[in-house]
Amino acid sequence: MSRTLKFIVLLFCSCVAVPAVYAQKECTLQTLTGTYAVYEKGASSFLNLTPPPSQFPYFSGVTAPFVNLGELTFSPDGVGTGFYWIKIGALNSDFAPFPIVSQSPK
């Protein structure tokens, strides 16, 4: 594809995309109102950058799996309530939820 054609396509897409962005409403607390489910999983790593002299030049570190589940509900006045579970390390089924309560920004 020629450079001129690429430029024309880019210009056309920009002319269509910019008005679409400005057509959206402003983000407010009413926009945020609703219930949200949260799910994250991955691994958390820690690296010791100052190993003991006996281990130099090898750095020591650990990695642990984690999972985070939650449910949050936001009201139109900005108050959020809900709960989440987070588990780091070996996973099993004895989760206990942590309560969440947020305050409306003033």
Question: Can you give a write-up of this model?
Answer:
It contains 2 helices and 4 strands. The protein has a 4-stranded antiparallel sheet with strand order 1-2-3-4. It is α+β, with helices and mostly antiparallel strands. It has helices spanning 3-23, 29-32; strands spanning 34-48, 60-74, 80-88, 98-101. The radius of gyration is 24 Å and the shape is flat. The longest helix has 21 residues, at 3-23. The mean pLDDT is 77. A hairpin with a 5-residue loop joins strand 2 (60-74) and strand 3 (80-88). The chain starts with a helix and ends in a 5-residue tail after the last strand.
pLDDT averaged residue by residue: 77
Helix content: 10-25%
Which stretches of 5+ consecutive residues score pLDDT under 50? none
Number of strands: 4
Alpha-beta content class: alpha+beta
Major beta sheet summary: 4 strands, antiparallel
Oligomeric grouping of the chains: single chain
Radius of gyration: 24 Å
- The percent range for strand residues is 35-45%
Form type: flat
Note the gap between the termini: 54 Å
The succession of helices and strands, N to C, reads HHEEEE
Topology:
Elements: H1 3-23, H2 29-32, E1 34-48, E2 60-74, E3 80-88, E4 98-101
Antiparallel strand pairs: 1-2, 2-3, 3-4
Structure in a nutshell:
The protein has 106 residues and is of the alpha+beta class. The protein is built from 2 helices and 4 strands, in the order ααββββ. A 4-stranded antiparallel beta sheet has the order 1-2-3-4.
